[in-house]
Specification:
rod-shaped, single chain, Rossmann fold, 472 residues, Heat Shock Protein 90, six-stranded mixed beta sheet, alpha/beta, five-stranded parallel beta sheet, 14 strands, 12 helices
Length: 472
């Protein structure tokens, strides 16, 4: 139910009778009443006493009702006030003109008070509803805008959180990578240190007694020759010996002993020299002077590594010996960390032997003599290149993409840690600023190619034959 006391009505009319009747009637109904006698005063009054509805006479002196309505509708502050025309003009075109100017209704004079009251209440309620809808629409727009702002804020927050998560994930990934790198360095350092200590200890324990044997076997050989010569002189001086001497000579087969003793001494000397070479190779393999790089002969490192792996290259009941083919070029001394570089040679050569043995066991290779080829050369970019190739089953393209990753291995559990190639790659690419590449196709063997950029500019290493083939 509407409350008339909440509304003000402006009555614009130049007829004193209307001004006397309507204000009293509407005022008795509880409405607030404002009065104007012409259009000009009505326009002035609405600026300081804003009505909720205007009852506007059409026929007035000066500015008529149509012009007054037009002026009201031109002003933004008064354009929304509902206007009801009151006039004796009953022609349709007059009503159309009034309605086209923005009026909401038309009351024809003479009018009934109850009709006026009904129309006034109707249009006030309609105006109230319209304003309520406008307010609600405005409030709804504000809520929509607020929600959009909240959604934008949530999206910005989500984006910020995603950025933080991505950044944190990146930091964690880098930390994990650094941790793995540190672990690899520690493993590498421990392996090299342990291997160096083992090899150095073994070499030290063998070195002194073998030097004693090598030093004395020559004297023993000379002494043996002297004794045999003395025996010969005795036989020439006393061709007819005593029966006891004749029996003893026959028992020990003196002539065979004379011939075989020389061979035994030569064999002992050869064995002692071989052991001495092995000790020298062990010392050469394990040599490392901490963080200081050295100018070394790459070929000595390769040969010492082959010497250590000699037992794995020999023939076995299920396969022939592995033939090692060397194609050594004339190389200058290379500035490097020899202990770490020898470890790389050890990893690559041991993997080549594993590949050959596995291929033979699985029937992927024929029983023909398996081979490992080692080549060295100088590239057009003045880098030292070492290539180690085998005639094994080869590596497929998918596996090649992962072979240098830490802990990746194709070997059975217990036979491989997945660190050998990863450490080798790190030693070559990071420590020596070189490259390590794998070239392989299934069924056509595998080749690992090392390129080292750090050449020693002045000295040249021990020269090797262009093609040196050794079968072990």
């Amino acid at each position: 139910m509407m409350n008339p006391a909440q509304y003000n009505i402006l009555l614009v009319d130049d007829n004193p009778n209307n001004l006397a009747v309507l204000p009293d009637f509407l005022g008795d109904m509880g409405f607030g009443i404002l009065v104007a006698r012409d259009g000009e005063s009505a326009l002035q009054k609405v600026n300081y006493a804003r009505p909720d509805l205007i009852l506007l006479d059409v026929m007035m002196p000066g500015m008529d009702g149509f012009e007054t309505c037009r002026q009201l509708k031109l002003q933004p502050d008064t354009s929304k006030i509902p206007v009801i025309f009151m006039t004796a003009l009953s022609e349709s075109h007059n009503k159309v003109q009034g309605l086209s100017l923005g009026a909401v209704d038309y009351i024809t004079k003479p009018f009934q008070q109850e009709e006026v009251l009904a129309r006034v209440k109707l249009h006030l309620e309609l105006h109230h509803l319209q304003r309520s809808l406008i307010d609600q629409n405005h409030q709804l727009k504000e809520e929509v805008a607020s929600r959009k702002a909240a959604e934008a804020a949530v999206q910005n927050l989500n984006q910020e959180l995603e950025n933080r998560v991505a950044e944190r994930t990146k930091e964690l990934a880098q930390a994990l990578k650094d941790l793995k790198q540190t672990q690899l360095q520690m493993v590498q350092g421990e392996k090299l240190a342990a291997l160096g200590q083992l090899v150095t200890g073994v070499a030290h324990e063998i070195k002194n007694p073998i030097n004693f044997i090598v030093g004395n076997v020559s004297h023993a050989s000379n002494y043996t020759q002297d004794l045999l010569e003395l025996l010969t002189q005795y036989q020439q001086a006393f061709p007819e010996g005593t029966p006891q001497i004749e029996d003893l000579a026959a028992e020990m087969d003196l002539e065979f002993l004379r011939t075989d003793l020389t061979k035994v001494m030569q064999s002992m000397k050869s064995g002692a020299d071989r052991i001495h070479e092995i000790v020298q190779s062990l010392c050469s393999f394990s040599r490392s002077h901490g963080s200081e790089a050295e100018a070394v002969d790459i070929h000595l490192g390769l040969d010492s590594t082959l010497m250590i792996l000699n037992s794995r290259l020999k023939a076995k009941p299920d396969r022939d010996s592995i033939q090692v083919i060397k194609h050594y070029s004339d190389l200058p001394l290379v500035t490097c960390y020899p202990g770490q570089l020898n470890q790389v040679f050890m990893n690559l050569l041991a993997n080549a032997i594993d590949a050959l043995e596995e291929g033979l066991q699985q029937g992927q290779l024929s029983q023909a003599s398996p081979q490992i080829c080692i080549s060295t050369s100088i590239t057009s970019e003045h880098q030292v290149e070492i290539a180690i190739a085998d005639t094994g089953p080869g590596i497929d393209a998918e596996t090649q993409q992962s072979i240098f990753k830490p802990f990746f291995t194709t070997k059975p559990i217990g036979k491989g840690t997945g660190l050998g190639l990863s450490i080798s790659h790190q030693v070559i690419t990071e420590t020596h600023q070189g490259t390590l590449q794998c070239r392989s196709q299934p069924g056509q063997g595998t080749e690992f190619v090392i390129q080292l950029p750090s050449l020693h500019p002045q000295t040249t290493g021990t020269l090797r034959k262009a093609s040196d083939i050794s079968s072990v």
